[in-house]
């Protein structure tokens, strides 16, 4: 379950599901590493320089869609009136367009990591609580003056009405898998950390997300 399940119903006139009714929340797992990247040969080394340049010549940045986590993050940062948002169907297509010079930047999860490590892209900022281990030179949004942390945590849910004993058994198995050393090693390679919540805590968090996303959709006029 991505956090978009809490946002999309507020964006639709006739949503296909109600996350507060249709699911049994089993376990929150982890969150993503997000960031904004430009080509390594681009003249901008900071977000401020990138935004300033766009005032002289319009510049486009890509995300994975209208209402995606990074689209909303960029709006919250306050660059929506300065940069041209260009939604793509996926990060791979967006990165291809960036390397080809069709757009100026990509704001997305860490599919850009290898290209940054290889020196083909430059990471202007990340959105976590602290600088990621693999990218210690990239500041967080908080470090550049925006009190915003975005990890878009995801988890596991089942159909509504799942018996509590089955829910707890599923949770126990999933929690063991989450903290299995081989899985922790994968998360570490991706600069992701466990963000475990049990069924009750995850259900509470789901209700909070649902109300927060209602306000996000209203604030940025994302309703279709």
Terminal CA distance reads: 22 Å
Structural class: alpha/beta
Question: What is the averaged pLDDT score?
Answer: 96
Rg for CA atoms: 19 Å
Estimate the global geometry from the Cα principal axes: globular
Beta-strand percent range: 15-25%
Low-confidence stretches: none
Total DSSP helices? 8
> Biggest sheet: strands side by side, in what order?
4-3-5-2-6
CATH class of the largest domain: Alpha Beta
H and E string: HEEHEHEHEHEEHHEH
What is the count of structural domains?
Answer: 2
What's a quick, concise take on this entry?
The chain is built from 8 helices and 8 strands, in the order αββαβαβαβαββααβα. By secondary structure, it is an alpha/beta fold. The chain has a 5-stranded mixed sheet, sandwiched between helices.
């Amino acid at each position: 379950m991505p956090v978009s399940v809490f946002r999309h119903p507020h964006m639709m006139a006739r949503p296909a599901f109600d996350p507060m009714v249709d699911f049994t929340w089993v376990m929150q797992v982890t969150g993503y590493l997000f960031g904004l990247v430009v080509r390594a040969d681009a003249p901008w080394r900071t977000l401020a320089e990138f935004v300033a340049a766009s005032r002289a010549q319009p510049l486009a940045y890509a995300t994975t869609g209208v209402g995606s986590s990074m689209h909303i993050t960029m709006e919250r940062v306050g660059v929506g009136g300065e940069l041209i948002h260009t939604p793509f169907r996926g990060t791979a297509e967006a990165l291809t367009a960036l390397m080809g010079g069709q757009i100026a930047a990509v704001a997305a999860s860490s599919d850009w990591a290898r290209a940054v490590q290889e020196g083909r892209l430059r990471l202007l900022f990340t959105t976590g609580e602290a600088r990621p281990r693999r990218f210690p030179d990239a500041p967080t949004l908080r470090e550049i003056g925006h009190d915003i942390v975005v990890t878009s945590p995801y988890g596991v849910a089942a159909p509504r009405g799942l018996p509590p004993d089955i829910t707890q058994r599923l949770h126990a198995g999933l929690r063991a898998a989450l903290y299995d050393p081989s899985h922790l090693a994968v998360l570490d390679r991706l600069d992701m950390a466990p963000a475990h919540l049990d069924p009750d805590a995850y259900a509470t968090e789901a209700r909070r997300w649902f109300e927060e996303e209602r306000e996000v959709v209203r604030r940025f006029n994302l309703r279709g």
